[in-house]
Amino acid sequence: MMGISLGKLIFTLVVVVGVWTLFKAIARRGGKTHVSPAQRAARKAEETVRARMGGRGGDRGGGEAMDLVRCPSCGAFTAEGSTCQCGWKAPG
Ligand SMILES: [Zn+2]
């Protein structure tokens, strides 16, 4: 009369739990080698930030942002105070 017997119910439950456990084990094992592109990008960004922070060591990076002056004779951008490849000396 009853479509679902207790045995069938338990069997279904065991199968579901078994498959779920299997998938979890596979995911855990594969998790170390397989990294999603988003995770990889996040990790790379974190590495870049850390490298930049570590390299500068808390110094506010005064020398990093150099003002570029456009050379009036050849049009190339040169750092302030340096000489252009054409010989023009940038002020600064
Ligand atoms: Zn120049």
Describe the structure.
- With 92 residues, the chain is mainly α.
- The chain has one domain (7-57, 65-79).
- It has two helices and two strands; from the N terminus they run ααββ.
- It has a two-stranded antiparallel ribbon.
- Strand 1 (68-70) and strand 2 form a beta hairpin.
- The mean pLDDT is 83.
- The structure holds zinc ion.
- Zinc ion binds at residues 71, 73-74, 76, 84-86, 88.
Rounded radius of gyration (Å): 31 Å
The percent of residues in helical segments reads: 40-55%
- Cα end-to-end separation: 95 Å
Poorly predicted sequence stretches spanning 5 or more consecutive residues: none
Bound molecules: zinc ion
Shape: rod-shaped
> What sequence of helices (H) and strands (E) makes up the elements?
HHEE
Q: What structural class results from the helix and strand content?
A: mainly alpha
Number of helices in the DSSP assignment: 2
User: Within the largest sheet, what's the order of strands?
Assistant: 1-2
**Rounded average pLDDT:** 83
In total, the number of domains comes to 1
Briefly, what is this?
With 92 residues, the protein is mainly alpha-helical. The chain has one domain (7-57, 65-79). It has helices at 6-30, 37-56, and strands spanning 68-70, 77-79.
Features:
two-stranded antiparallel ribbon, binds zinc ion, mainly alpha, about 50% helix
Question: Mind sketching the topology for me?
Answer:
Layout: H1 6-30, H2 37-56, E1 68-70, E2 77-79
Antiparallel strand pairs: 1-2
Bound molecules: zinc ion (ZN).
Zinc ion binds at residues 71, 73-74, 76, 84-86, 88.
